[in-house]
Amino acid sequence: MEEMTPGVFNEIPYEKSVRHYDTSKMPLHQLGVFTFLIYALSKILMVGKKYKIEKIDMEGIKPPYILLSNHMHFVDFYLNAIATYPHKVYNIATVDGYYRRPFLMEWIGCMCKRKFTTDPDLLKSVENVLYKKKGILSMYPEARYSPAGTTAILPDSMGMLVKKMKVPVVVMLHHGNYLYTPFWNYRKPRKVPLYTTVKCVLTAEEVQELSAVEIQEKITAAMQYDEHRWQQEQGIRITEPHRAEGLHKILYQCPHCMTESKMESKGAILTCSACGKQWEWTEDGYLRALEGETEFTHIPDWFEWERANVRREVEEGRYSFEDEVEVFSLPACMKFQKVGKAKLTHNADGFTVEGIYKDKPYRIHRPVQGMYGVHIEYDYCYVRPEDCIDISTHNDSLYCYPTKQNVVTKLSFATEELYRFKMKDRLERRRQRLARVKDKDKEKEAQA
Ligand SMILES: [Zn+2]
Description:
globular; binds zinc ion; alpha/beta; PH-domain like; seven-stranded mixed β-sheet; 448 residues; 11 helices; single chain; 24% strand; seven-stranded antiparallel β-sheet
């Protein structure tokens, strides 16, 4: 409810028959038979794939503990189940993971979460898993698939959560999964070996000794990865001729003519349709301009260059976005509701979705400070295989399909950069306020 603005109706005016899924439900105890079935099914689904799981510093580490994994695609879940068997893993899952299968998700002990919202009930479920069930609390703190094979923004509350829970932290880092099924083209897997490390990064004693900030720093350091670098270092060749198809979704801005949203990709070639410049993504994982200067040989460098451009727009107060979107919502888990056309705006005030549902106007607003990131999709498998952006509230999730093409990556950058800017601004003002108080205290002391 924290994002409710007085006088603004922050919900879609559904008919009474539309229920909202109760995300505050306590997780159920996972039966041993389910633990085995998940493991067996994961093993079957991994048949024919080359993978290796390595455990590091895991001697004597038994549940309860917190397991943090990086997230690239569905294959992560199978590897997670294989690596942790025979222990019981309780996953925090997003509401669309419950789509058409809420009972199954409940039976295996999942906890439901709406993305990038604050959920005070989740803490109770986490305590329940760790203290009562003595299980593994499994989280994907990036809260989405990695768009460019590098660490996505992490919530700054992890250190506090771990400090409060007083249990060890294990980090599961997957390598190869992004290259195998990149988020921007997961339908055409490539032949890439998968390698997962499971490492205890904080023991219960270390959690006791360190501050929340230090814990946060340790986790952040342990969660760093760059899959493109990994490919280059391991000398992995991706020979599939379609390897760059979809790459324009993350590399949406041309570094030659600066035009946005006009990039295209086919085969192994990325093209700017505005100026015609072309780049090849080579088999060994580098970009190479077909003519003229190669601006970036490394995909994450191009990606971060785009982010820096968005950051500048935010800092200079130039950033704003407006578009007509088609909205599908998921208040409960069995059916997407067709909400219809709406206006989506994104600017220094945050996200606003305004529209009319069954003759009743509505306005959904999420302020900047309530969202450190946003969930985007390039080929959303549940509604329509196109780009969309998920704006969630405490009891609903709106999947908005923009009319403008290839804009969602920029929306994701802008969400993160607006948050960063706002928080920096807030911290600065707090620092100034404290300095003023201190000055006054000093004055008083001097007078006394
Ligand atoms: Zn261009």
